[in-house]
User: What shape does this take?
Amino acid sequence: MEHSVLPYLEWELLREPITLSKVEDRAELPEGPKKIVIDRDEDYNLRATLFSKNSAFGGDLHQSPAVAGSFPETFDTQGSHSDLVHYTLESCLIGDRVHTIREDEEVSTISLRFKGLRMRYKNENEWSHLAEWYLNGPKDFVFHRVTDRKLSRNFSRTRLASTDDKIDSMEVSREDSSVGVDFLRIQVSDFQFLVTKVPKGIGPSWSSNIGIEYRKAWGRIPDVHEREKIEELCSFVFGQQFLSVGYTIYDGNKNVIEGYVHNPWGNEARYYCSKHDDPPIRISNSARGKAEDIIGQLLPTYYELREPLGLKEALWHYWISRRMPIGTNLPILAAALESVMNGWFKYAKSKSKGVYMKKEEFESLLNMEIGVLKKRFENIPDGDKIFAKILQAYSYGITERYRVFFQEIGLSIDSDEWEAIKARHKFVHGQMIFDETDWKRVIQHVNTFETLLNRILLKLLGYSGTFIDRSAVGWNDKQLG
Assistant: This one.
């Protein structure tokens, strides 16, 4: 860790194990004195161990183990180790229990699973800024603004032979400093925020750790829903899914008011953080300030279109596809694209709405023939399915939906992209035979489909520059069209 760093200002608050020596009595826990030790495991997931000299529980929870397939009820429990900080473990479940004999006393060791740890400090000041903390930030050289850190220390020593006899006295001052290129400044209409690189030595060494910092003095602090949108868009632009692990709230004097820590998404954070960055646009520091400009430009439109076009759901599919084996991820990428398409055809800007004619008009035209058609098909194999398809004939089929969607958003699609779209069918409908599959071609289809999805999202968000074309050898930049 750098000597010029104050860790509580640069990273989340569960950097070292926390011991709660005072734990509330409640029916779900052993009676009498107990303590809880909280830390994180090798994948940065939360874990807690409760120690007690009494194995007896109140209530009936310990007598009736959870039934397989059921959903056990969770509980919150509170504790502290001083009067300065109050801790709440949220959504707890009792895990494994071990009873041992130590010095003729029975000691119970119980694992606790829980959703998050809230830490409230004895601080009545008004809060002034908030920092949210993430694993899996960008590894490439995307930062270009400079931070100058200084930390001063004063040391004094006096040796006394007696109360009035001073033998030696000294005072030493020391200042540690460091300068790093480690943050971006994003400006939007009525506020700004920083994307900051966490100094080395704080947080897990296998992750590129980052923070997103907001301050009231910078206009305003966005609410939790806005901050979620910022996290999503930044993840997309940087080419890595930010894995949130908590936040810290500070007062004007940089003292902590509240902290919250939770598990990163998924069960293999270390594995996710080992992957290289795959941004849709070239944003390394050779293009100085480009990431700032792009995020600032796209964020207002992302705010506007996120709900109507299902962009949150599309990006979840996008990230999940990267965690799946090649080929099997094609249907997931298709689901991301179709989530956006479904939103588009419901959205006011779509001219066709995804139908040849309105449902009411079609049913009105068909009304006189419905009885005849139903009777004709009811006595043949799969007649009900055929009749159901006839009733849906006013709307586009899946291929036509793709074609019209691309046309309406003004995006030209080449033959390789159409082939990648069609390739998903084999994996969806069980038509893929492992020994007969050209896996190099499948990899190309995946790269092409992901590039297509990048183009669509960039186009919808109003971007008009170049993108990284991963559908062709060389991965060169290409003008969005």
Notes: The longest helix spans residues 439-460. The CA atoms of residues 361 and 454 lie 37 Å apart.
